[in-house]
Amino acid sequence: MYLKHFGLKAQPFQLTPDIGFLFMSEAHTRAKAYMDYSVWNREGFVVITGEIGCGKTTLIEKLLSQLDENVVVAKIFQTQLDEVEFLQAMLVDFGLNPFDAKKVELLDMLNTFLLEQFVQGKQIVLIVDDAHNLSTKVLEEIRMLAGLETRKEKILHVILVGQPQLNEILDHPDMEQLIQRVKLRYNIPPLSEQEVCQYILFRLSIAGAGDRALFLVDAFPVIYKYAGGTPRLINTLCDAALTFAYADDLPRITGKVVEAAAGELQWPLHSERVDQRRQKAALRPFDSGRHDVLSEQSRSLATIAEQVGKLEGLPPMLASIRMSLAAIEAHLRNLFERREVDAQTESGRQRERRRKDG
How many structural domains does the chain have? Predict the structure, then answer.
């Protein structure tokens, strides 16, 4: 829409991953080097993490674009799968048809394929994006597959890519066997304020801006104030700013234009966004643990109540039992809600103390 207005030949801030617009910051260069190491040095596990929108998927696309015909890759981008579905997804990406096979047959099919490819001198790589969504059972399957090796080297190389929660999962004591196989781990940090400026100018240059200063100097601090160092947020805000300037027939993007674009997006300051994320993270262990217990109790009670309901001709005592079970379940829910309110109240007190101290 605004390309002709600003003399651009391509959208500079599209959200779809495009390796042609990939800005290789120091952190992205390091993460990419770790991925390369896993592929070409026949090492076991590499784990790359980063916040939403930091460019993880684009890095994967960059890696895939550079692999030659001697590398056989299975790419898994849909990770909310059970063990059987995950094995099927791997085999499909390797070009096989696994849908009528049972789990034992799937494992045999996969092991046979891996060994055949290895004998042919192929490098075999499994890349899993959004790996933080994998269940512990699927992670265990991956661990066992990665255990397939010769006396000298691994047969399957694994690159797990996901949000920082993946580190929390892998650091759990139950994941000790898997984590011992991890050769390299790296978390991609946000771009610095200086890198944000370089990032924007790089993408504008690729899009055809050349040396023209479409974004004035006072725009960059405002962009960083609202988007931080997250590429996806930077793209969204810059695209909105260009659209806003086009609508008002403005030739340049100023700090005032960026402020107006952020207002139309109804964005908070990035520091507030980070605080909200930290509060959610602080509550997550409590919430998830209590929720899991409550869910399990509810399922058990529901099963018991269902069985009781099927019984006929027994004394009225059974009705009393059902009522007691319902009361227990209600008590558990009330307990969970009270604990959740207490946690939120304490979080609010901490924010108030920080405000007063500041």
Answer: 3
Two structure tokens written together for 192? 């610095």
Composition of the chain by helix, strand, coil, percent to 5: 60, 10, 30
> Could you give the angle at which helices 193-206 and 219-227 cross, rounded to 10 degrees?
110
Whether 145 and 114 map to the same domain: the answer is: yes
Single-letter code of the amino acid located at 235 = N
| DSSP run (H or E) holding 84 | helix 83-93
Q: Is 345 helix (H, G, I), strand (E, B) or coil?
A: helix
Query: For residue 153, what pLDDT is reported?
Result: 79
Phi–psi pair at 124, nearest 5 degrees: -115, 125
**Residue 63: closest CA among 53, 78, 48:** 48
Contact 127, 161 (CB under 8 A): yes
Residue 183 lies in a domain: yes
Q: Are 167 and 188 in contact (CB under 8 A)?
A: no
Scan for tokens 């040396």, then name that residue: 211
Token pair of 22 as six digits: 């990939």
CB 330 within 8 A of CB 305: no
Mean pLDDT throughout 292-311?
A: 52
Alpha carbon of residue 88 to chain centroid: 22
Whether 161 contacts 131, CB under 8 Å? yes
Q: Is 124 helix (H, G, I), strand (E, B) or coil?
A: strand
> Which tokens is 81 given?
């799968």
Give residue 79's domain range. Answer: 26-188
Q: Which pLDDT score, from 0 to 100, does residue 294 have?
A: 46
pLDDT range class, residue 295, cuts 50, 70, 90: very low
CA-to-CA separations, 248 to 9, 252, 256, 261, in angstroms, rounded: 21, 11, 13, 12
